[in-house]
Amino acid sequence: MPDTVPITDNAARSRFEYDVDGRIVFANYRRDGDTVLIPHVEAPPSLRGTGAADRLMRAIMETARRDGLRIVPICSYAAAWMRRHREYADVVG
After folding, report:
1. CA 22 to CA 92: how far, in whole Å?
2. What region holds the N-acetyltransferase domain (predicted)?
């Protein structure tokens, strides 16, 4: 498995961010205790198809595992990503 990328928890905007040369891939979230709901994941058009959103999701899941959080995917991309990556089933809420 590739190393995860550094992400930022932009609490003011309620989103996790991954900066790729000044272009931001992000996942909006809502927290409810130890549960993090992800209603939207977005990559700039220039990064779509490059794996940037995949790297963001992997880093979110690693962060959740480290911090004892549960992730609930609401957006279709996050839900499909989690179905394809069963190695993170332990953090899916």
Report:
1. 30
2. 8-93
